[in-house]
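Report of the visiting student (M.T.), summer placement. My assignment was to run the structure pipeline on a short list of targets and document each run. The first record concerns Protein FrlC.
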Amino acid sequence: MADIRREQVAGMNIHYINYSLDYFLDSQKRCGFKTIELWCACPHVWLDHLTYYNAKEIGLKIRERDLKVCVLTPENCTYPYQFAAKEPELREKSYNYFANGIRLASELGCGMMEVNSGWGYWNEEREEAWKRSRDMLSRLADTGREYGVTLVMEAIRPEESQLVINLESARRMFNEVNHPNLKVMVDTCAMGVANETLEDWFKVFGDNIRHMHFIDGNPYGHLIWGDGKHHLGRFIEILNKYGYEYYLGQEITDGRYYSDPAMHDLRNMRNFEHYIDY
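After the run finished, the structure tokens were exported:
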């Protein structure tokens, strides 16, 4: 049987948007999580281009429950900030927003921050948006090096971007930025939509894969394990085959989970417990 460590399974607060941060943290402890991927958006964590919420208070809440933050994820799909912003003022505000995320991660003792390529405008030449995304990621990687934080870049779906949407475009961006503080992560939803496999990603990136949004899907949907078509045990076999020791973020975003996220998180953890090496 394939095995993982409990600490690798990282709960996430994105589907707790209708509940308080305290409720989320209490739920994670009750469900048996040891690690969380902290999504930064109201009402849980205030982060913008000017400032960020009280890191000391957040850190204390997390430590009091014997939890730790493995990855910090600034909201970057629906907010106005994005990595391929065009207008100079918006580009600078976006940089300051993500740089504040890096600073917050550092204060929380978290060594990784999730990023993507952004999307630019769809009515412009793709290469123009690509250059802005590459320059932004390079600049943020420099900031990450200053604060001891590594960026982990995911591909997103074609509906969300014209830039990094699959393995091949992720490889191109990774090679062009070419910075020790930029690594890659796998989102199994985007991976499935692109008709790719975990093994495909490991063959290309190997140990440069430092994080995952590791969820079930059809392949669309960010689903609790058991609610989609992926096979958890076979996925974990691939992780072990390639010696993956990093985290498995539970980015659960389907609306069916929002009314009772704690119940679904418990169900999710029970699925993982079949494969956890105690």
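The two ends are 13 Å apart (CA to CA). The chain has one domain: 6-272. I thank the supervising group for their guidance throughout the placement.
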